[in-house]
Amino acid sequence: MNTLKQEALTAIAQLPETADIDTMMYRLYVIDKVMKGREAVEKGETISAEDLKREIEAW
User: Inter-axis angle of helices 21-43 and 4-14, to 10 degrees?
Assistant: First the structure.
């Protein structure tokens, strides 16, 4: 697995030369959320779709 820095550099390198800072920041934000999600799954820190649905309906 790549480090966060490697992921960030790869993501930015793949953007077009005309990409603005907002696009770069959004790409890095998404990478961060995906990595944190993967870590949560590995740790078993997830809930079922049914539990999530109940939480949403309770709001």
Answer: 140
**Which residues, other chains included, contact 10 with Cβ-Cβ below 8 Å and sequence gap of 6+?**
2
Domain boundaries of the chain, sorted by first residue: 4-58
Continuous segment of H or E residues that includes residue 30: helix 21-43
Rg of the chain taking only CA atoms, in angstroms: 16
CB distance 40 to 46 below 8 Å: yes
The dihedral built from the CA positions of residue 36, 34, 48 and 56, taken in this order, carries a sign that is: positive
What is the model's pLDDT at position 51? 95
Q: What is the mean pLDDT of each successive set of 10 residues along the chain, which is 59 residues long?
A: 86 96 95 93 95 94
